[in-house]
Design a protein that fits this description.
The protein is an all-alpha fold. It folds into two domains: about 140 residues, no CATH class; about 160 residues, no CATH class. It has 15 helices and two strands. The chain has a two-stranded antiparallel sheet. Strand 1 and strand 2 form a beta hairpin. Helix 2 packs antiparallel against helix 3 and helix 2 runs parallel beside helix 4. The longest helix is centred in the middle third of the chain and has 22 residues. The radius of gyration is 19 Å and the shape is globular. The termini are far apart.
Length: about 300
């Protein structure tokens, strides 16, 4: 009989070119459980529905084709969960990766902290393992990849290290970040922030400035001032030291050249952004100068 890792790979291979099958496999991981584990899939499945609607998980041979990068990162998450489930059910073999061990820990004793550690271990492993695929995507798509990463790392920290994530607002962290509750979708649902199509036709500057006011308050007012500490916490928590290399002097840098870093200053002005930063005990990190793009148009 094949070991758990091989069987998990076979499960994922069967749905590789079937976006609906990917979703069904992700949903089944939670539905086949009894007890509290069933409630943990809310944010993950919501994000997956957004991915399906955009078409990024469509087969590469389809018209239009999906995204090789989004497909690969999604496969890593599906495979890790499937392998952990099989091992916990008595399957043969040892965990093929630390992220599989994290999922096995969650299955044996579900908790919000264990869910975040498992989920983010798989996601970060997918990011680090497929940066070459990310580099082939357009600029606005790579911007969205960076935002997706910093959001999920921040949400983990809201629950595990709320003072690091929220400063004076720390008491709100565990309540807002619990993956079993609807509140968490405010932080992890990129459908509220970015265009629904793939590939995105609009320039990245326009996409950023069109982002909902609340989402920009989150990204620029709360998360940006803490990115260095946030990535250091996540690298230690997930035992992924390579994660800190995805920042360029405090600016997101996954598949992102240094020459393009000024795009992260677009829209980083406004009283509402300064207010939320002050309320949490910090200040805006990426203060733009008049020479940087986005100052004239920052009206929200």
């Amino acid at each position: 009989m094949a070991d758990a890792a091989t069987r998990a790979e076979q499960q994922v291979a069967r749905v590789r070119d079937d976006p609906a099958g990917r979703y069904a496999l992700a949903r089944e991981f939670y539905r086949q459980a009894t007890g509290p584990r069933r409630r943990y899939g809310r944010a993950e499945l919501s994000f997956l529905r957004w991915s399906l609607a955009r078409g990024v998980l469509a087969p590469e041979a389809s018209d239009p084709p999906g995204s090789a990068w989004w497909r690969a990162v999604n496969e890593r998450l599906l495979r890790d969960k499937a392998e952990a489930h099989l091992l916990c059910a008595g399957g043969a073999g040892l965990p093929s990766a630390p992220s599989v061990e994290c999922w096995a820990d969650f299955i044996r004793a579900p908790s919000p902290r264990r869910w975040y550690r498992a989920h983010n271990a798989s996601i970060v492993a997918g990011y680090l393992g497929h940066e070459d695929l990310a580099a082939a995507e357009c600029q606005v798509e790579r911007f969205m990849m960076n935002v997706a990463l910093l959001r999920v790392l921040f949400t983990h920290a809201m629950l595990a290290e709320p003072r690091l994530a929220l400063g004076r607002l720390a008491p709100l962290g565990p309540l807002m970040a619990d993956p079993r509750h609807r509140n968490v979708q405010l932080f992890l649902d990129l459908g509220r922030s970015f265009p629904p199509e793939y590939p995105v036709a609009a320039p990245v500057e326009e996409t950023v400035l069109d982002e909902h006011t609340l989402a920009r308050m989150l990204d620029y007012g709360l998360i940006a001032p803490r990115l260095t500490e946030l990535y250091e916490f996540s690298a230690a928590s997930l035992d992924q030291p390579g994660l800190t290399a995805l920042l360029d002097d405090g600016v997101p840098a996954y598949a992102w050249p240094h020459a393009d870093r000024t795009i992260w200053y677009v829209g980083n002005t406004g009283r509402h952004l300064r207010a939320i930063a002050r309320a949490s005990g910090t200040r805006l990190l990426w203060e733009p100068s008049p020479a940087r793009p986005g100052r004239r148009r920052s009206r929200r």
